[in-house]
Design brief:
It holds the Pfam family DUF444. It contains eight helices and eight strands. It has about 280 residues and is of the alpha/beta class.
């Protein structure tokens, strides 16, 4: 991502009045007046010394003095006509936009901690999130990680609570997606941040909530996100959440989903989700 900052870029001869550099303009004015009047001032000094010598002479030199005085007056008038400052003396501060590359990312980790998620399933989800964090922390200099746990209600938690809390309950997956969208709107402008999301669940969800999850993803989260992945960790048959997410995957290139059955599937699934996109590579 590229941002731009305004920096000083020397001086120019044209610009708006508010950008006039007074010191630089006066320096140019003084230099110009010195150049334009140098020979005249030298000649004037010589004439003044000659007039002084004639005035001290006892002989009568009225005609010569009159001619010298006239020439001196003419030179002084020419010197006085040189303007103190001219338009081409003006120097304006110049500014330019400088590109500043930035790489800021925020990763949202959404984990289902409902009663249907047994300890083994939660452990596999945690291993996946550790791989994801290591991957993004090596890719981005600045990265924020937002941890969200949910059952029937979603809550933003710290790293320790995310991995070790024993809280359980029913399942409403849309609560986590709604909280994620609220946090993005409040703290992470999608023009300044690369937004990633990863949701891990066993797929168990209220049937009437799964269509809502699809709507939130398609209309609110995916338009702001670089990439969103859904990992379903279960050995059972897929339920309504998986089916609605399949519809999301078909219509959004920045959404992907994978199925994990055992610990051995974690790393292959991770590599599949975050492999390089060779089709768009240049």
């Amino acid at each position: 991502m590229i941002e731009y900052k305004t920096v000083r870029s020397g001086f120019c001869t044209q610009g708006v009045a508010s950008n006039i550099d007074i010191v630089k303009s006066l320096q140019g004015s003084i230099a110009r007046r010195i150049v334009m009047t140098c020979s005249k001032r030298k000649k004037l000094k010589e004439l003044e010394q000659e007039l002084l010598a004639l005035s001290q002479d006892t002989h009568d030199h009225i005609q010569q003095e009159r001619a010298l005085r006239l020439e001196i007056k003419t030179l002084k008038n020419k010197i006085a006509k040189v303007p103190f400052i001219d338009t081409f003396d003006l120097r304006f501060r110049n500014y330019a936009k400088q590109a500043v590359p930035t790489s800021k990312a925020v990763m949202f980790c959404l984990m289902d901690v409902s009663g249907s998620m047994d300890q083994a399933t939660k452990e596999m989800a945690k291993r996946f999130y550790i791989l994801l964090y290591l991957f993004l922390s090596r890719t981005y200099k600045n990265i924020d990680v937002i941890y969200i746990r949910h059952h029937t209600q979603a809550k933003e938690v710290d790293e320790h609570e995310f991995f070790y809390s024993q809280e359980t309950g029913g399942t409403i997956a849309s609560s986590a997606l709604e909280l994620m969208n609220d946090i993005i709107c409040e703290r992470y402008n999608d023009n300044q941040w690369n937004i990633y999301g990863a949701q891990a669940s066993d797929g168990d969800n209220w049937a009437d909530d799964s269509p809502r999850c699809q709507t939130i993803l398609e209309q609110q989260i995916l338009p702001k996100s670089r990439y969103f992945s859904y990992i379903e960790i279960t050995q059972r048959a897929h339920q309504t959440l998986w089916k609605h997410y399949q519809a999301v995957e078909q219509s959004n290139t920045n959404f992907a989903m994978q199925h994990i059955k055992s610990v051995a599937d974690i790393y292959p699934v991770f590599r599949e989700l975050f492999k390089k996109n060779t089709q768009n590579a240049t």
